[in-house]
Amino acid sequence: NIEKKQLTLGVLIQTYNESNTIDECIRSARRLSDIILVVDTESTDDTCKKVTKHKDIKLISFPYNRYVEP
User: Fold this and answer.
1) 3-class DSSP assignment, residue 38
2) SS3 label, residue 10
3) pLDDT tens digits along 2-61
């Protein structure tokens, strides 16, 4: 007898100056999950301001690196 477990799916959105597209991206992500995390890499536009209007979304600011650490 295999017990079924309910899995939780979260969506992570990485942004940098996505003010023009972030609202649509969040709407699309909501079709997949109620758990949405946005990691912003020091946007200079209104991306963070738009994300913070969604009170249920966690926003984290992260320094922008031009490389990927190993």
Assistant:
1) strand
2) strand
3) 677 787 899 999 999 999 999 999 999 999 999 999 999 999 999 999 999 999 999 999
Which residues have a Cβ under 8 Å from the Cβ of 45 and sit 6 or more positions away?
17, 18, 19
5/19 Cα distance (integer angstroms): 37
pTM for the model: 0.82
Classify each residue of 31-55 as buried b or exposed e, where b means 16 or more C-beta atoms within 10 Å of its C-beta.
eeeeebebebeebeeebbebbeeee
Residue with tokens 């649509």, as numbered in its chain? 24
